[in-house]
Amino acid sequence: DADVTQTPRNRITKTGKRIMLECSQTKGHDRMYWYRQDPGLGLRLIYYSFDVKDINKGEISDGYSVSRQAQAKFSLSLESAIPNQTALYFCATVGESYNEQFFGPGTRLTVL
Amino acid sequence: GQNIDQPTEMTATEGAIVQINCTYQTSGFNGLFWYQQHAGEAPTFLSYNVLDGLEEKGRFSSFLSRSKGYSYLLLKELQMKDSASYLCAPSGSARQLTFGSGTQLTVLP
Q1: Considering only CA atoms, which of A52, A88, A57 is closest in space to residue A72?
Q2: In the structure, what pLDDT confidence band is assigned to residue B1 with cuts at 50, 70 and 90?
Q3: Per the CB < 8 Å rule, is A31 touching B31?
Q4: Phi, psi of A83 (to 5 degrees)
């Protein structure tokens, strides 16, 4: 089984709809991150969490919210999706050692 | 904030050596990562440097100079499967990564 899973893997939605992307990990890591990737722009940090009570905004948090339901689960929500949120979204976890960095397989989101 | 600069594209021949450079300006520096990413897939970890110098791992080596804000990734004995995007990513104090736009490497037969 994969260490970091994301659901859904692909999603097409319409402008104004609420969307939730989910991330689960079996690594037992405390730190979890959400990134988005746009062509030519690399990955950009949306939100990160050190534990269930510690949520922090990243570089591009506007239009997004997150929930850390448990150590193993970190969800990203788009309250009212807009077309420029069309992107590839990645969840990542970090362990105590810097060599322990894991990315999920990604969610491809299209907002029409 | 953080600024990261790496070449957009590079081309090399199978069996050759290629060096991908990265310069960065950052606050709260906590090491620098290199990732490999194939199109549509998740980034995969290649290397991490926190101290100045060269780290070698098989066909891949990575170098860091903190005073110069400079790193490079060296790939030896190139294989066709090395065709991918290579991402330079300094790490901040919260272990968050800031990624460059990536260098698309094409390996030709």
Answers
A1: A52
A2: very low
A3: no
A4: -55, -35
Counting as low any pLDDT under 70, the low residues of chain A are: 1-2, 98-100
Contact A59 B45 (CB under 8 A): no
C-alpha distance from residue A45 to each of A48, A90, B17, B48, B68 (Å): 8, 10, 32, 19, 25
Position with higher pLDDT, B85 vs B93: B85
Q: What residue of A is the nearest CA neighbor of B87?
A: A42
Diameter of chain B measured on Cα atoms: 42
* Residue found under tokens 């105590």: A96
**What band does B38 get if pLDDT is binned at 50, 70 and 90?**
very high
d(CA A36, CA B104): 18
Helix (H, G, I), strand (E, B) or coil at A88: strand
Tell me if A93 sits within 8 A of A33, measured CB to CB: yes
Are B91 and B71 in contact by the 8 Å Cβ rule? The answer is: no
The token pair at A49 is 């969490």
Residues B37 and A76: their CA atoms lie apart, in Å, by 23
Q: Which two tokens stand for residue B41?
A: 């897939």
